[in-house]
Write a structure and sequence with these properties.
single chain; 149 residues; binds zinc ion; alpha+beta; elongated; two-stranded antiparallel ribbon; 2 helices
Length: 149
């Protein structure tokens, strides 16, 4: 048997869910609630259970968003020379830390980080130093306009 990707464009493969017969029972029980008095203990029990579902869904979504941010920021840090897990500081090995990123910015953090030296919050991570804010670009005086004579 070969594992095939069940996902198609625009759809997500969720994996196995609830047995269709059991899901039908669940939905039919929820339908019955409309016939019960709102203060009936069974109605209250179902309301408590569904409120709990909403709460845990919220918590799970929040955890997923946090985890995604953490993974993103870790990837940015990993792309820097000083934050790389493969960093080699041992100069006797003759290998200096080098960045795997071409260009000056390793990435943009989703959670701002405090600069190690000046404590400024920053999101643009330098390709070399992952704990330092990037210096502001040097201010260049506007080029003098050539005098027309
Ligand atoms: Zn700084």
């Amino acid at each position: 048997m070969t594992v095939t990707d069940e996902s198609h464009e625009g759809t997500v493969a969720y994996g196995p869910g609830i047995d269709p017969d059991r899901l039908a029972v669940c939905l039919s029980v929820l339908d019955e609630l409309d016939k019960l008095d709102v203060d009936h203990p069974d109605a209250i029990a179902v309301r408590r259970a569904t409120a709990g579902i909403y709460r845990t869904v919220k918590q799970r979504r929040r955890q997923e968003r946090r985890a995604a941010k953490t993974a993103h920021d870790r990837a940015v840090t990993e792309a820097t020379a000083t934050g790389s897990a493969d960093r080699i500081d041992d100069e006797t090995a003759g290998v200096l830390p080098s960045s795997s990123v071409k260009g000056e910015i390793a990435g943009i953090l989703q959670r701002p980080r405090s600069c190690y030296t000046c404590k400024t919050r920053y999101v643009e991570v330098d390709a070399f130093y992952h704990q330092l804010c990037r210096p502001a670009p040097p201010r260049t005086a506007p080029a003098a306009t050539p005098a027309t004579t």
